[in-house]
Amino acid sequence: MSTATVRVGVGRMVRRLGGHGWLFRVCLGVLVVFVAVALLAPWLAPQDPTVGDFADTMAGPSAQHWLGTDQGGHDTFSALLEGARTSLLGPLGVVAFSSVGGIAVGLFSGWRGGRVDAVISRVLDVLFAFPSLLLAILAVALFGKGLGAPVLAMAVAYLPYTARLVRGLTAQEKTRPYIAAYLVQGHAPAYVAVRGLLPNIAATVLAQSTVNFGYALLDLAALSFLGLGVQPPTPDWGAMINRAQSAVLAGQPLSAVVPVMAVVVAVLAFNVVGERLGERGTR
Amino acid sequence: MSLALAVLRRLAGTAVTLLVTSFLVYSSLYLAPGDPVSFLVRGRSPSPAELASIRRQFGFDQPFLLRYWHWLDAVLHGDFGRSYLFHQSVGAVIWSRLPSSLLLVAVATVLIAVVGIGAGALGALRRGTRTDGAVLLLVTVGAAVPSFAAAIVLRSVLGVKLGWFPTIGNGSGLLDRLRHVVLPAIALSVTFMALVTRVTRSAMLDQLGREHVEVALSRGTPRFAVLRRHVFRNALGPIVTVSGLLVSGMLVSTAIVETAFGMSGIGSLLVQCVDELDFQVVQALVLLVVAAFVVVNTLVDLVYPLIDPRVARRAGGVR
Question: What is the domain extent for residue B296?
Fold first, then answer.
C-alpha cells in the first residue's frame, strides 16, 4: 500500500468519526492515567478500601467519601484506585503469555509452511472452539478460585488469535527479497526469522496484543463478577461490581456504576488504541 | 458428485474436531491436583458404596485411552455422569435448566439479528453521514460494554428506578417469562450486536462498491431490488460466518447474565457447580458449549453454498 492511499484512508476515518486523531490521543491519555494510578494506588488512595465502616454504608458522594461507600461501608474511590492494580495485572499476564506463545507458534508455522503448518493450523482451529471465559471457568473448576489458573487458561485461549495473525504475516513477509538476501549471506533461518522478519511485523502484532488486552480485562472482570476470580478483600473492579449488586437492588447503584465505568472506559481505550496502531502497522 | 464429496469431507472434519475437543475436555480432569476420585467428591463425605460406584463408573483400573472411550460411549448415549450436588444424573440437571437459557438466547438472537443487521445496513447505505457516524460510535462503545455492565445499568434504571421490568428470577407462565427475559436478553445482546453491526456494515459497503451493483443500478433496476438481490444477498455470507462465534459466546455469557438477574438456567448452573465443586456438571456444560460452536460452524459451511453458489462451484471444481 502506498503512502498516498494510507493518507486518504486516515483522512476518511478522521471525517467519519469526527476526528479519529483526538479520539486516539484521548484514549492513549486514559491508558497512561490508568497505568499511573495502578502503579501509585497505595499512595493515592485516601483510605484503606479493605476496611469497611458499617456505620456509613451505601453513602452518597461526600467530602469524606468522594464516590460514596458500598453496602459494606468500603470507600468506593479508594477501591477504584487500588482495584486498578489487579484489574490491569491479570490482563497483562494474559497478553504477555499469549503474545510470546502466539509469536513463537505463528513464526514457526508460517516460516516452515507445508505439513507442519497445516497440522499447527488444525490444532489452532480446535483451540478456537474454546471461548476464553469458558476456559477460564474450567480452570477455576480444576484449580480453585483466584487469578493464577484463569490467567494461564485465558492465555491459551488468546494464543490462537496472535498465532494466526503472525503466521499469515510471516508467510507473506517471507517471500520478500530481503529475507532471501539474509539467507544468501549465510545467516541461520532462526536468526533471520527473529531478528530480520519479526521487527517488520511487530507493529501489527502489538496492535493485536493491545486489543487482546482490552478483551482479557473484560473477561477477567466478568470472572471476578461471577465470584470466581479475584477474592475479597483484594480490591478488583469485577469483584466490586459483584459485591455492589445488593446496593443496586436497594436503589443505590453508585458503588456498582463506578467500577462498571472503569471497565468500559479501559476496554474502549484499549480497543481504540489497538485498532489505530493496527492501521499504522499495515502501512 | 464432487459437492457430495466436499460435504462428506466437511462432516469428517467436524467429527475429528469433536473427537479432539471431547478428549481435551475429558482429560482436563487429570490436570486437577491430586487423585481424580477424591477431586470429584471434594467437599462431600461420600459413602464407601458411592466411592466404589465412582471407581466403577470411571474404571480407574483401566488404561487411560480405554477410560476415555467408555466415557465417550456413555456421553454419546446421553449419560454425562452423576451430579453429587443435586443427586441426579447430570443430563437431567442440565435438561431441566436448558429451556429457560434457550429462551434467553433466542430472544437475544432476534434482537441481534434485527438491530445488528438493521443498523449495519443503515450505516452502509448512509455512508459518511451523521447517521453512519452514530452507528460507528455505537459499534465502538457497544463492543466495550460487557454484559455485566449492561445488566447493572438496565437493572438499576429500568428495573429498580422505573419499575418497568422485574429485576430477579425467571417468572412463570409465558407472558411473565417473556417479561422477565427482556432485560437479560438486551444485556446479553449488546456486545454481539456491535459485532454483527460492524460485520454487516463492512460487508454491505464492500458489495455496494462492486461493479455489478453499479451496472444494475445504471440499467434502471429498482434500487430496492438491487439492494435485496445483489447487495444484501452477497453480504449475507460474512454475516452468517460469525454465527458460530455468536452461539458459543452467548451460551457462555448466559453465565454472567443469569447470575446478574438471579435467573435459573445453564449459565447460572455452571457458576453454581464451579462454586460448589460439582465437576461432572461443569465438564458436561463445557463440552456442550464447545460442541455447539463446532456444529454451528459446520452448519454454516454447509449452508454457505446455498447462499453463494460460487463457493460450491469452487469447492467442487478445485478439490
Answer: 98-318
